[in-house]
Specification:
The protein is an alpha+beta fold. It has helices at 17-31, 47-57, 106-121, 135-143, 169-178, 186-191; strands spanning 10-14, 65-72, 75-84, 89-97, 125-131, 147-154, 158-166. The protein has a 7-stranded mixed β-sheet with strand order 1-2-3-4-5-7-6, with helices on both faces. The chain is globular, with a radius of gyration of 20 Å.
Length: 202
């Protein structure tokens, strides 16, 4: 299991959605502007369409969610937010470390805290999407045991890499097998309805 500790002086706090939104309103445009390359879909919608989306957002079910703020003393320096997307999956919607606090292992510690909470809650899968060139996030997640599950071309963000973390190791092995990088043996072979020696070298 992922286990990285925060440096001394830092803490992670669970915030209300309202408090988190204030931090996001301040920092998201500065962190994720990407020199104006991200498409603001709302600017393409009519007022009627925007109104419909506002109404639809009120109808979503109250799933489990996390709004975690990272602090150095009382100074806000990063966040991780997300919510349950189905009966077994948590969607890691967004996370960032403010520029002056980077390269201290804070993202790994924040990710570790999120994963501990998700495992304790009983989730099977943690899912996230990232711009394909965002190595600062993709590489630590791959090292932590996430696997690439798909690619997406988004009208808003461009090419996105989908990552999944399987809390059940057998399910992760099944995913790696599906990608062609593992020969199934033992329980995995049985679960797939295969003979244990089906992939034996002859």
């Amino acid at each position: 299991m992922i286990n990285h500790k925060l440096p001394e002086g830092f803490s992670i706090r669970e915030l209300t959605p309202e408090v988190m939104q204030k931090h996001l309103d301040e920092w998201s445009p500065k962190i994720f502007d990407d020199e104006g390359l991200m498409l603001d879909v709302r600017s393409l919608l009519s007022e009627s369409e925007r109104g419909c989306l506002r109404e639809l957002s009120k109808n979503t079910q109250a799933h489990f969610r996390l709004d975690l703020g990272l602090f150095c003393g009382d100074e806000f320096c990063g966040w991780a937010i997300g919510a349950q997307s189905d009966y077994e999956t948590y969607y890691m919607r967004n996370s960032a470390i403010l520029p002056k606090f980077r390269r201290r292992g804070l993202y790994r510690a924040l990710l570790s805290e999120v994963m501990k909470r998700l495992e304790a809650k009983g989730f099977q899968i943690a899912h996230s999407r990232h711009v394909a060139t965002n190595n600062a996030i993709i590489i630590p997640k791959l090292r932590a045991g996430f696997v690439i599950s798909s690619l997406e071309i988004s009208d808003r963000f461009g090419t996105l890499v989908h990552l999944k973390y399987f809390f059940n190791e057998k399910r992760r092995d099944a995913m790696v097998f599906r990608a062609g990088d593992l020969r199934p043996v033992g329980e995995l072979a049985s679960a797939l309805g295969m003979k244990a020696d089906a992939f034996a070298v002859k």
